[in-house]
Amino acid sequence: MKRSASYHTKQRETIISYLSSLGSAHITAGSMAEYFNEQGISIGLTTVYRQLNKLIQKGLVRKFSVDGINGACYQYLGDESNMGDHYHLKCEKCGELIHLQCDQIEALGQHIFERHSFTLKPQKTLFCGTCNMCYLKESDDAVLETTYGKSEST
After folding, report:
1. What residues contact 154, with CB distance under 8 A and at least 6 apart?
2. Fold adopted by 1-80
3. How is residue 76 annotated by DSSP?
4. How much helix, strand and coil, in percent to the nearest 5, is found in the chain?
């Protein structure tokens, strides 16, 4: 039994190490299991879910859902468990998911509560739009199209 407990501890440590290497990025359990498989690390999907649930209970990981992503997303909190609630921005072009902690958005949430009797759930609030990189690429493409005309391939 000790061997089994030690094995699970090593798996948990491997999962924590991987999550912490991602910083505050989101990841699905399936993506984690796929990564471990590609690296030749013997941690299956069921074990990933089990360990993630334990880490959630300990306050080291946050679980939430994001529209357009199959399955739940997980975020490592680590020492930043006092990070508080935050909102998300999702680029509709490239799919990038960005954390947003902003006093103005918090003020909007307060306004919505006070004036419209509605409470936002920051961990489930997603603002969709275009990230700066995609916006700049679109702007560059528009300039090229204006200057040189529409390309034959588009």
Report:
1. none
2. Arc Repressor Mutant, subunit A (1.10.10)
3. E
4. 50, 15, 30
Taking all residues of the chain, what is their mean pLDDT, rounded to a whole number?
81
**pLDDT band for position 80 (cuts 50, 70, 90):** low
Q: Spell out the domain ranges in the chain.
A: 1-80, 84-154
Does 84-154 carry CATH code 3.30.1490.190? Answer: yes
d(CA 93, CA 135): 9
Contacts of 6 (CB under 8 A, 6+ apart): none
Q: What is the signed CA dihedral for 76, 79, 85, 87, rounded to 10 degrees? A: -50
Question: Rounded CA gap, 26 and 24, in Å?
Answer: 7
28's tokens: 């699905």
* pTM: predicted TM-score of the whole model, two decimal places: 0.56
Q: Are 75 and 84 in contact (CB under 8 A)?
A: no
pLDDT at res. 79: 59
On the question of pLDDT at 135 being above 80, the answer is: yes
